Request: fold
Amino acid sequence: MRQVTLLGALEGADLAAEVAAFGVDGPVALITAGWEEGERNDAEVDRRLGGGSRNLNLYGRRLDVLESDAEYADAERLLRTQLDELREVYLLRLRHALAGVDVIRRRFAEAHRPPGPELDGAIEAVRALDESQATAIGGAYERFYAQHPPHERAPIARHRDEVAEIVSGCAAIAIAGGHVGVLNDCLHLCNVGALIEDRPLLAWSSGSMAISERIVVIDDADPAGRPDEIYDIGLGVARGMVALPAAASRLHAHDPDRLAVFARRCAPSVCVLFDAGDRVELHAGRPTDLGAVGVITRDGRMVRGAAAA
Amino acid sequence: MVEWYGERQPPDVSPSPARSQRALTRLLGERTSPEAVDQLLREHQIPLVDGPTCTFLWRGEADWVGVEHRMPDVPIPLPLRRLKGTDLWYASVELPRGARVQYRLLVRRGEHTESMNDPLNKRVVGEPIGSQSVLEADGYVVPDWTRPDPAAVSGELVDVRLPSKALRREAHVTLYIPSRMRRDRRMPLVVVHDGGDFLHFSSMGTVLDNLMHRRLMADCVVAFTHPGDRLREYGAGTAHSRFLTDELVPNLEGSLHLRGDPRGRVLMGASFGGVAALAAAVRKPGFYGGLLLESPSLRFTAAATPATFGEVFEPVIRFVNSVRASPRKVTERIFLTFGAFEPLAVPDRAMAGVLERMCDEMRLVEALDGHNWINWRDRLLDGLGWLFPGEARLIYPS
Reply:
């Protein structure tokens, strides 16, 4: 059974001890693609992993693909435009749907009545939007990969082979944080999901998001005021959970009503709050012991030590 | 759908002699000797800020002293009272948290009244029409993204000259090219009115460097335009609209790697520049995807008396009256901001509903500040971050 450990942040983590706990022998394949141009500035992480890690250089490989395969680059730009447009419409509809939830909740509160099926219906409408967005994103990727099979593109095939070769010589894989969108794109481009099938995996920060089924972004400090959103489809290694790193800095107002709606949007997955020092192990891809992390309950509380849903 | 941030109602600002007396009494320890006044002025930042109570001070011999300001519901000018037995003059107001006020002192001796910056206050800002003293109420913080950040790579400022048939002059434009400009990425374009003033008085080059470096806004090319006969060109003039839509934007889209679609075109302006931006969008519906309007001079009249606000406002009032008569969608998004402490707050607040009908989405920020370049600077994150959302929310700790 694959061993997977998720950490809240690099800060304060004993990476070498985490790798040692896997009980394997050999170098660690390191993914720092989320650091973008800073991808190779990995000396500190390498040292903390115990040294000898092999950086897969996924960001650099992606840049090389886009520079050397103009046709693929154009097609990918078109895909990005389509995804941007999907996202824009989704966020527009989401704002209105969430405003509807707020109005109904307020009306019940003002009338001193418990919210009834009207509120359930409003939240279901939001869930339907989320589902529809996830399906639309998945559909866009499917069409793209059908039209432009990556393994048939020489530069991509070459990079995939090189990455597979490196990973085959490694005992475990570590995925760092950074830009979750860039990280996710790089993981998909180099088909890392297939390579990590049975290897122990250590991920932290947005690395935990990228290996989840869905990448859900929250940020109360967003100047554009965008609501909590389904941003992308992840590798699907971690199931039944929504990873929310940097929760302390991203969730400003602990508004139970808003959090309850969010938890219900994500259900049946559990919303796991990751901050420095937080740690979760997955068994069969699912978190079974949530005792050491925070979760958002369906009544909008942020609690620690809750049993897995 | 309008998202309204800040104060929905005019802020509660009022003269408060009782509280100022308390503040002064506390600070002077009931002694009114010259030494006590010296100590007060030496040990405190002036104006005094004690919670919501802000006290203006002036020291010297005069027949009358007042504060020239734009705070609502406070006498203009606000007269100062002389503290008995001293040459210290004072007046207090209560300001909401986070407010910021620009002012000058008026000192009358005999027949002569002198307008001056507050000699006890080192905080002075430059404005095109002269400098002013600044009162920062409790809770006001200069946004850190307005200050130069050594980590941020500066964009390039390039001056270009463009012969304009519409304006019948050579137009001067300063282009801001972001540091991450790449040939494989088409960027949006923002056209800024009063470009020189935004660069000089609102530090907009620094602001753009920081917002883009921190990914609080998407990378954009920004065209800072410099007006000729400003009030005529910006006062809803058709020639200026033609210059923007038929000359400047096509020229830039033809020579730079820009998006070239409505979503990639935003017009921005403050005061009369806001009128110019709106007028150009109204004359070419759908061409611009967004407007960033800061304290736009959207004066209008209920009756057909356009001369009410003076000759320069006549074309503006005619334009705004026509827009109010039949508002129609001209753009996708409008960001509107104005200061609660400016006369234009009333018409701008009244125009919110009209502007809402002229776009798909509108965001309104009513700031606790006035008609000035620092207010417009401080709102740039709200406006640009909304119109061109950045990727900061996708970036997590390493």
